[in-house]
Protein 1
Amino acid sequence: MKILSIFLAMVVGTIDPRSAIASDELSQREIRARVEAGEILSLDQLLNLHPQLLESKLLDLEVELHSTRVIYELEILTNSGSVQEVKLDAHTGEIVEKSEDD
């Protein structure tokens, strides 16, 4: 019901659709600009901090802005055959969350 209410409010223009979404995906241009400005680490730098991720196959990658925090979201296939989602803080390189995908 809550989703329907948000959708209807966006349709009639009473709320900005961007405010209904918790995060926004960054474009390649935005990512490059932030890396060059030293605001965030590049993907290469993050992978060097976490070499165990290099042993896996990258299936999907998204870079999203969560409030004021930029997060790299990696979906990987491990050597054991499981699919995992790993979220990394783009500024510090810290693993924020790691979970098995169903």
Note: Confidence is low (pLDDT under 50) at residues 1-21.
Protein 2
Amino acid sequence: MNLIPMAGFLIVEQDEGKKVTKGGIIIPDVHQKKGATGKVVAVPEYGYPDIKVGDKVLFAQFSGKDIVVADKNYLVVNYCDIEALVE
């Protein structure tokens, strides 16, 4: 299934949170914080000149709507919530 976001939105695959602390303590899934970064997997048909599929972006921590497609988790993020490109 292809996801094509409407104008003003992006589809982002969110980075996983830390699973182990620096000291080696394993963090249970329930207590892991998801990262506020992710890889762009879809942009609207007319796109954005500064963001392309495959770019890594930083977005506002509680932004986006969680969706599941073909057993994969994605976020639908408003373009205005994108704060930076990560290189």
Note: The beta strands are 9-14, 37-42, 56-59, 65-69, 72-78, 82-86.
Protein 3
Amino acid sequence: MFNFSFFLILIEVARTRLRQEGDKYKTFFQTLGLIIKEEGVYGMYKGMATHMIRQIPNTAIVMTTYELIVKYWKTNHEYNLSTHEE
């Protein structure tokens, strides 16, 4: 999860900046380049801690829900995955 979030944060930062009012940020790549030029590479990862604080509980909820649904389905349905027969 960390590696994927490490790259996904670039998209989040650019998207957030593109939503700001004004004409400073025009396109995705122009925004990334401008952030790196003005703030350095560190500027791309300013919101990483906040993003991770939000993402970790979200992922935990999704995974727990998935596991509960799979467990419920297996206990309440006789379904053979290899032959697709009930």
Note: Residues 2-76 form one domain.
